Amino acid sequence: MSHTNSDPSPAPPSWPYCGEGVSPERPFGCPGIHVPGHTACLAHLPGPDRDAYLAGLTPGADIDHSGTPFTPSLLAALLDPLRDPATGHPHLGGALFASATFKGDAGFGSAIFEHVAGFRSAVFEGNAWFGSAAFKRDTAFALAAFKGQAEFEAATFEGDVGFWSATFERPTGFDSATFKGDTRFALATFKAVARFESTTFERPAVFTSATFNAGAVFDWATFEHVALFESATFQRDAWFGSSTFQNDAVFEAAAFERNAWLESATFERALRLGPLVCAEQVRLSGAVFGGPVILSIAARHLECRRPRWSSTAEVHLRYATVDFAHAVFEYPLTIAAEPDPFVLADGQQVAEGPLSGAPAAVRMASLRGVDAAHLVLADVDLSGCLFTGTVHLDQVRLEGTCSFATVPSGTRWRAGHPVRFTERRTLGEEHHWRARQPAAVPGWNATASGVGPVGPAQLAPVYRALRKAFEDGKNEPGAADFYYGEMEMRRHDRTGTSRAERGLLHSYWMLSGYGLRASRAVGWLAAAMLATIVLLMGFGLPNNDPKQEATGTVPAGGGKVTFEIGKDDAHNPTGNRFTGERFEKALNVTLNSVVFRSADQDLTTAGTYIEMTSRLTEPVLLGLAVLAVRNRVKR
Fold this sequence. Notes:
Elements: H1 47-55, E1 63-64, E2 69-70, H2 72-79, E3 91-92, E4 95-96, E5 101-102, E6 106-107, E7 112-113, E8 117-118, E9 123-124, E10 128-129, E11 134-135, E12 139-140, E13 145-146, E14 150-151, E15 156-157, E16 161-162, E17 167-168, E18 172-173, E19 178-179, E20 183-184, E21 189-190, E22 194-195, E23 200-201, E24 205-206, E25 211-212, E26 216-217, E27 222-223, E28 227-228, E29 233-234, E30 238-239, E31 244-245, E32 249-250, E33 255-256, E34 260-261, E35 266-267, E36 271-283, E37 288-289, E38 293-303, E39 308-309, E40 313-318, E41 321-323, E42 328-329, E43 333-337, E44 363-366, E45 375-378, E46 397-399, E47 405-406, E48 411-414, E49 417-420, E50 425-426, H3 428-435, H4 456-472, H5 476-492, H6 499-512, H7 518-540, E51 548-553, E52 562-567, H8 580-594, H9 605-634
Parallel strand pairs: 1-4, 2-5, 3-7, 4-8, 5-9, 6-10, 7-11, 8-12, 9-13, 10-14, 11-15, 12-16, 13-17, 14-18, 15-19, 16-20, 17-21, 18-22, 19-23, 20-24, 21-25, 22-26, 23-27, 24-28, 25-29, 26-30, 27-31, 28-32, 29-33, 30-34, 31-35, 33-36, 34-36, 35-37, 36-38, 37-39, 38-40, 38-41, 39-42, 40-43, ...
Antiparallel strand pairs: 47-50, 48-49, 51-52
């Protein structure tokens, strides 16, 4: 039986290698390249030969020690003859350390690399110090493994630099570093905190498919060219605060498993941010967008306080609760909820990870301080949105299905008697205000945060503006609820509404629900008609209809006879007043009163006043009922 090993056999290095220390684990022995003129690497070169080689080095010399294992003392011995006498810092020409192993700390601080610097597949088992180093040509750290701390603070890379597929196991720092050529961290893995604070990228910065297992800090970084974070994974918080993107910033399919902080970041050109997935919060507060923007974000929270948009923008969201307070935008801005997962350019859906399975609804938390003249909201939940303080709210466009809060459903109890609210849409701020009243009806929700001292005086203009927005959008039936809310706030406003006006509004509310509750007006009309019928039967109709009598006198000598026609006074009823005949008469009088007509019916003095009152009140109630039906149909 034969066994096949699926692992490929290790290949020998492509350069002349030392071969010292052959073992089963290292079938080719030491991979260190030969020192020029010798058959061993620097680590295994005999002492006299090594000393002679090192003595021949001068600052700016080219060196190649690919595959060589370095101890701290050996590295120091190599760099000492290369130090510039004026500065004391290592000064190298071309430096190749491909596949080299640095078994302790590797100190290249303030070193100058005049030509190509190659650390491809190098292994740094201790800390790697490249602080303030200057790389004047292309630099390669591809596939390098940094097992200790890696510090490149204030380093300068004047050529292209590649860290693709590099692994950083401990904290890594590129603070204040400058990358003047193309920079590639594609497929790199940062297992600890990666710091790029105040770093400058003058050419494209590529972090495609990079993985940040711990925090990623890009605060105050400057990206002067394209910044690519496609398919990058941030398993902890990612900070881009106050960073500047002067060209395109691409975060397509990026995954943020915690928070993404882009506060006060500046995007100077057109931006397509996303689609990206963030398990917690994306913060764009204070960000500045100088060009057209398309944001596609799936996150639990999106904080956009005080951002500035200087061009058109589209914000496509899933799952998010959005705080848009004090946002400033001068051109149309659309916030839309996406019902389906985002799709990449290749047609594949973006994996939503921990967000999958949760309701994808988008909820607006606040629009306070926003000038809504150019704002379009599509299919978002506005039930908890704070509107007070929004400017030009009457010009906001509501597209699709934008839902609002509703009044408590069913029958509630207050002070021992039942209360039932007619269904209508309300503001979350009205919920909060009503829930704080001493005699609040259970069911009003006061869980919204940041509402502040908001009352009827502040809410009435908000309802009025939203009513106008619905009317301007040709949604007059939808505007009715906001007209009702406006009138409710005016009725409860004890600061801006006089007592007399509140009394009129209270009557208007009781009789017809501000001209919107036809059933209420019809009920009052039926009650008034019933009361009129009962009063007429009891007091308004006489016992019997008075008879007419004609009397006259015949002159003695003959001549013209003059008659006087009179009628008996109507007598107040006695006996059984509630009979079928009297009901018919009372009903006839009442029906005529409803349409403001006088019935041909004799009445008592009391009946005359009853009819007059009926002719004044019942046509008004009929008009309110007709108005309510018209308003519900038209609005």
